[in-house]
Specification:
heterodimer; A: mainly alpha; two-stranded antiparallel sheet; 11 helices; 2 strands; B: mainly alpha; ABC transporter involved in vitamin B12 uptake, BtuC; 13 helices; 70% helix; 1% strand
């Protein structure tokens, strides 16, 4: 009985951790390619959730059905944000970069409140409603689908970086901007691509979460802290690192809440992170 | 100091002293107090974030430490908040050492992220602890009013002058640090850490000095806030958005300059208050839209901060990109 409960908790942790990882992957990709921490990343997720919600509210389309469209929309949005704002601060000091993306965060939250009011909204019926029963264990189908979607997307991004010419160009820019430029890789295009993919990942995560999570203008703040932790824990810029860190953090969070006290689950996660970077400042899989 | 800047400083001081006597509307005085308090936090942050270049995004933990220590001492033991202010500063400096020990091993973004984590841990712990008031926080009793009790309910003026005094103290510490050998070491640590180390400068030791000063002064601001608002809770005292705001104020004005954070606080608080008065109250976030858009515009078009408008010779933190080679 206790073993089942423990297993249930463990697997729930892995499920949520996989979605955390998907949010963090976009963030770590942007950081890896251009050394900018995007404080507005949670708002990309928020916009993804709203895109899914409005598709459902207007056309009765399921968030899972509109997911590819949401990803495309967010890709375009990420590129636009890059072209309009980020492009101008590429070489600015770290301090003004923080300033700019933090301003974007406030702006996007304000926009969402202005356009869609601060109400909590939810997608009240979806094709993924229901439960998955596995022996004595039970999981919500939306959570399982979200986790599966996160794994597929993460794998796709990883394969794109590893096996395509464009992905290799992106990695080359991340490794050495000047050398990549000498090989004829247009850094500006790569930066725009990183913002597009980063935002699209957050958009996919948003669409997946829309099936099982309330949607409101500040929803990004719930996920951004964990995403930051994953990026730093996994190693800034490491997609694989963020993935494993996501699973680790999801398990620690859910297990901590279960075994100790839900109020302190984040304390546990953050302490684990500080402990790891104390001994391994570059994160689990970051390059020193 | 050159004669021109001395005159400017004296003129500014006279204007600051006279302001609340001329502007008698309570809303103006309140905004001015808010500006002074925000400026003080920005200047305190500047010692660590500006001079030493260690970008902390967890300073709310120190702000909260000051507020909570003085409040608990006065509520449980009846100790005057003035003494509590000192005790809070000492506690925050101690907390600073605790934070610095793991975090100073990290650089740049890694350091910033770790300080966010520290701030969030402190907030979560206070939130979950009944002895520290939990999520509800404390409402300070209206006990002894007057100077020693640090509660003034007849007029805002005492808070104004205390805030001004605290700001001047903080600027004074900043100025002393900047002039002393510590200041030179801190700038060396920021610009050329490896060179500084090779010359025998203990990086950790001087970063720690900056951290303790910065944390202690920030805590004093926290005590003042608690005594002025007479209400503290984790959300208003310890949130990461407060930490980021403290950093933004300094960055907006010009991190690493003596008066930049003061200017930044005036501009930042001004923008915040104006947009709230002009567009707030609708509950539709128009004020946030304008506020956010202004921040983005400033970051894009004035990356060295508002001080950059006045001092043309502010050296950029990174060398400007080399002009692209043109082949004839």
């Amino acid at each position: 009985m206790t073993v089942e409960l423990l297993l249930q908790t463990l697997l729930s942790g892995i499920l949520i951790g996989l979605v955390y990882a998907l949010v963090a992957i976009g963030l770590t990709l942007i950081f890896g390619v251009m050394d900018i921490v995007n404080f507005a990343h949670g708002e990309f997720l928020m916009f993804g959730m709203y895109a899914a919600f409005w598709g459902f509210a207007f056309w009765k389309l399921d968030p899972i059905v509109t997911l590819p469209l949401t990803a495309l929309l967010l890709f375009a949005f990420g590129v636009v944000v890059y072209k309009l704002v980020i492009r101008r601060i590429t070489d600015a000091p770290m301090l003004s970069q923080i300033f700019a993306t933090f301003g974007l965060m406030i702006l996007f939250r304000g926009l969402a409140q202005y356009l869609w009011k601060p109400d909590f909204r939810s997608v009240d019926h979806t094709i993924v409603a229901g439960k998955v029963v596995l022996g004595g264990l039970q999981f919500g189908l939306p959570q399982v689908v979200a986790a599966a979607g996160a794994v597929v997307t993460t794998a796709a991004v990883w394969a794109f970086l590893r096996y395509t010419r464009l992905g290799a160009a992106l990695e080359a820019t991340a490794a050495d901007k000047e050398a990549a430029a000498l090989m004829g890789i247009d850094a500006q295009r790569m930066f725009a691509l990183a913002w597009g993919i980063g935002a699209a990942c957050a958009g996919v995560a948003g669409a997946l979460l829309a099936t099982c999570y309330p949607i409101f203008p500040e929803v990004g703040s719930t996920f951004i802290l964990v995403a930051f932790v994953l990026v730093a824990l996994g190693g800034f810029g490491s997609v694989v690192g963020a993935f494993w860190a996501g699973i680790l953090v999801g398990v620690v969070e859910v297990m901590g809440g279960f075994l100790w006290d839900p109020a302190y689950k984040m304390v546990l996660v953050l302490s684990l992170y500080l402990l790891v970077v104390w001994f391994r400042p570059q994160g689990l899989m970051g390059k020193a | 100091m050159r004669r021109g800047s001395t005159a400017l400083a004296l003129g500014g001081l006279a204007a600051a002293l006279a302001f609340p006597l001329l502007a008698t509307r309570v809303t103006w005085q309140n905004t001015a107090i808010l500006m002074l308090m925000t400026a003080q936090l920005g200047v305190a942050w500047n010692i660590l974030g500006g001079y030493a270049g260690q970008v902390s995004l967890g300073h709310a933990a120190f702000f909260g430490a000051g507020a909570y220590v003085s409040t608990i001492l006065s509520m449980k033991l009846g100790i005057s908040p003035w003494l509590g202010m000192g005790a809070g500063a000492v506690c925050a400096a101690g907390l600073g050492v605790l934070v610095g020990t793991p975090c100073f091993r990290l650089k740049g973004h890694y350091f910033a992220m770790a300080t966010i984590a520290v701030g969030e841990i402190v907030q979560a712990v206070v939130n979950g602890s009944d002895a520290l008031g939990g999520a509800v926080g404390f409402t300070l009793p209206l006990g002894e009013t007057g100077f020693w009790g640090f509660v003034f309910n007849r007029s805002k003026l005492p808070y104004y002058y205390i805030a001004l005094g605290l700001l001047l103290l903080t600027v004074g510490v900043n100025w002393l640090v900047n002039r002393s050998h510590v200041g030179y070491y801190l700038r060396a640590i920021k610009d050329e850490p490896d060179a500084a180390r090779s010359l025998g400068v203990s990086l950790t030791r001087y970063k720690m000095i900056a951290m303790m000063l910065s944390a202690g002064l920030t805590a004093m601001g926290g005590t003042l806030y608690a005594q002025k608002e007479l209400f503290i809770d984790p959300n208003s005292m310890l949130s990461t958005s407060l930490s980021i705001k403290i950093a933004l104020v300094a960055i907006l004005g010009g991190a690493g300059t003596l008066w930049g954070p003061v200017l930044g606080a005036v501009v930042f608080t001004g923008i915040e208050e104006l947009t709230r008065v002009a567009f707030g109250g609708t509950g539709r976030g128009t004020d946030l839209v304008v506020h956010g858009a202004l921040l983005v515009l400033i970051a894009v078009y004035q990356p060295s901060g508002v001080m950059g408008l006045f001092t043309r010779r502010t050296p950029p933190a990174v060398p400007p990109p080399e002009p692209e080679a043109e082949f004839p």
